[in-house]
Amino acid sequence: MAENPRGQSGAGQTRRRGAALEEAILRAAVDELTESGYAGLTMDKVATRAGTNKNALYRRWPNRLTLGIAAYRHLATTVQPPDTGTLRGDVLEWLRQANRYWSSPLGAVLRELLAAAGGASELLAQLHEQSGDAAAAPWLTILGRAVARGEAAPEALHPRVATAAMVLLRNEFVVRGVPTAPDDVLVEIVDEVYLPLVRGRGGVPAHAAPHGRPGA
């Protein structure tokens, strides 16, 4: 039996506190997000689903946006960057994975949270993909492999350079409002912007690319 609105435990059940109650609330918020999106997330619904009262939510999260972000972080998983053996292959595959994610129901939740957070940097930093170090880490891994293979110079290992392709893809969703980015857009981002940018750092010539053609 779930905890009732007054916080009393059911017969024979110990009242949930601390981490156990927080986990129940987050699970309830995750369920609400996946079923109704951020637009349908309310403190009342989460409290009811979790079998607790709103005070238990507000003691941990001051509003539904901070709860929504916490629930998203609880739901999101970490994916390792691809290792195809070439810089172009890695970047294109990583963008394709990101495109599929941003086009998914969970990606739609992320876009709603980003819009709701606006310019609040402290909230954006709580979204794993938006925090500087977390966003740059897989891209720096990809570029580090490229440096080791001789496809890029060490000067390319800069966070702003590393994440440029992802920023351009994110703009397709956030600024242009597309439901998904066509694959030819991803190829254009890689071949026309990202690879020239990376190879321009430290003067790596285009013929250093595998297969002997620009953008390969």
Automatic annotation (TrEMBL):
Molecular function GO labels: DNA-binding transcription factor activity; transcription cis-regulatory region binding
The keyword Glycoprotein is assigned to this record: no
Keywords: DNA-binding, Transcription, Transcription regulation
Residue span(s) of domain HTH tetR-type: 19-79
Segments of the chain annotated as binding DNA: 42-61
PROSITE patterns in alphabetical order: HTH_TETR_2
InterPro entries named in the record: Homeodomain-like_sf, HTH-type_TetR-like_transc_reg, HTH_TetR, Tet_transcr_reg_TetR-rel_C_sf, TetR_C
Protein name as it appears in the record: TetR/AcrR family transcriptional regulator
